[in-house]
Design goal:
Rossmann fold, 13 helices, homodimer, 8-stranded mixed sheet, 333 residues, alpha/beta
Chain lengths: 333, 333
């Protein structure tokens, strides 16, 4: 490795390659789409393919095929919830969006793509294990709104058993949650992504027919910095960004009733403007929500701020559907 | 896949295998150590090796070799900081431990193993890119205490550029931060692990000569559940657990001065007893810390609770060193 580094300075933009050029012995052709070495044609293994992808990005995109729906599923919209940084309440925002859509009469499901840190089943109070039958895995329904949920924790003997798996295995499980789970007829499937920009988010963006992504952030500069990584990733992978939710924006003191910005002043509007993504909601850090999540009763929590997001997302997706239909018509004619 | 599922019920303990049996086409022999299919000998690819590992765990352990130190490094102790769940302040605890040890006169370094969500450089206010010379990568020193730091963000042209890499590439970068970085002479190297139990934590536990792990949690039941996954993982991989830090335990209202348990009542003591890991410290959610992290001045923050952890960890590690020395002597005689 040192021979490689020898001739160059790490502060140069190309430095990332020094790190990635070590990968080929363990990476697969699928990795090329996310590999800088492949992108700029310096990867010794995928050189030709990478060159081709670099000069013909349209061809590169088509090389990653979206996974088809199972014959038992009719899922009209898939929306992922992403944060980049962990602990900003991404899973609770996913669950709150799902419940808000369900209350509006939409058929929704929740796919927990956070394989190594799943929290969706606990929030919905689901203790039952997932069953399977000859045609696939059956999601478990939440108690109150009957929202079908699939998570690795519904397949483990104990919810605190770790899944000590490397990326390729995690990526396969995420794919299986799309291809082998009998979701049935859904208006919206919400996908809870793990923090970071690794295997699970990459697999979801590459392999699932995403309509868009909701980004969750918190007021910390740090969270904003990491969230920007997630936004850049979504754009690199041509995934539509539906909007931004700032969570844990403030705390209301139960003793004096004053508003307290525990993670610093709100940055939602600034991030929205800087990244050109609409700010969908600003949510407080509410101990009541933590309590309901811990008790598995998140469906009892119904903040107006989230309810108002439903209408916005539905309108955007309807608009996108119309554009797709027009585009299709023009191609047919 | 459905053929596999059709014969079994997902609620059976063996269900995990249904998911992992899809992996062989993409997993490497190295994965066996973390794969249930390999562990119980059902993996079609690694059957023999897995059988062998199952009946002779000592042999299995020796099959994963720790990476040697570079000729330029003399690192006496390696301590990883892990949380399982994101956003519990793991990175700030890593940085606070490093600064506390540095203040006590120890030579410390920080290896940021959170490749897809690195926050260590920002906390230390490091804006400079890492340089390299013919023998490897040079860490960048923090301003106040001159703590050497290596992070993927010191190798990227912009700190908010995402690294959209799959697990094997991420694992290689983490290894390179150990083998190719010129750390020099250190008493303690602190490793900041990403959330979850995936590639980076697995690689660190398998390939780095860890003396132990500090677990960081928050009072949420959810965090506790995911933290238990991390603890089980560490035990499966025979990594010593030094202790537990409960972070974000409470907030002091700046208006009325009352203590407010925003994430619910403290569970540190209960988790410590349930998992048999000493509770090292209980830290508040302090807006002052968020502010200093955002300003890159975490070295100016010096809570007594963390300072007191230094003495405890040093004593434990000295004791472990003596045990190792005795063990070595008895083998020599």
């Amino acid at each position: 490795m040192s021979e490689k580094i020898e001739t160059r300075n790490a502060s140069q933009a190309g430095e990332g390659r020094d790190l990635e050029e070590r990968a080929p012995e363990s990476c697969t052709p699928e990795d090329c789409s996310s590999c800088q070495a492949a992108a700029d044609g310096t990867c010794p293994l995928q050189h030709e393919k990478a060159q081709d992808e670099r000069v013909r990005p349209d061809k590169a995109k088509s090389a990653i095929e979206k996974l088809p729906q199972s014959q038992f599923n009719d899922i009209r919209h898939v929306v992922a919830v992403m944060s980049g940084k962990g602990g900003v309440g991404k899973s609770s925002v996913t669950a709150l969006l799902a419940t808000a859509f369900a209350r509006e009469g939409y058929k929704v499901g929740v796919l927990d793509a956070d394989i190594t840190g799943p929290s969706i089943p606990r929030m919905f109070g689901i203790k039952k294990r997932a069953d399977s039958f000859e045609f696939g895995l059956l999601p478990v329904q939440s108690e109150t709104l009957r929202i079908p949920v699939m998570s690795i924790n519904l397949l483990l003997p104990h919810e605190d058993d770790p899944v000590i798996w490397r990326g390729p295995i995690i990526a396969n499980v995420v794919k299986q949650f799309w291809t082998d789970v009998v979701w049935g007829d859904l208006d919206f499937l919400f996908v809870d992504l793990p923090p970071g920009t690794g295997d699970a988010p990459l697999t979801v963006m590459q392999s699932l027919p995403l309509d868009g992504i909701v980004i969750v952030s918190s007021p910390q500069d740090l969270a904003v910095m990491v969230v920007k990584k997630a936004i850049k990733m979504a754009r690199i992978l041509n995934t539509h960004l539906l909007g931004l939710v700032e969570n844990m924006s403030y705390v209301i003191c139960p003793h004096c009733g004053n508003k307290h910005e525990v993670f610093g002043p709100s940055k939602g509007q600034a991030v929205s403007e800087a990244t050109d993504i609409p700010l969908l909601a600003t949510l407080p850090l509410d101990p009541k929500l933590s309590e309901l999540c811990d008790k598995g009763r998140i469906e009892d929590y119904n903040p107006d701020a989230v309810a108002s997001v439903v209408d916005f997302i539905v309108k955007i997706l309807d608009h996108m559907d119309k554009l797709k239909a027009k585009d299709h018509e023009s191609k047919v004619q």
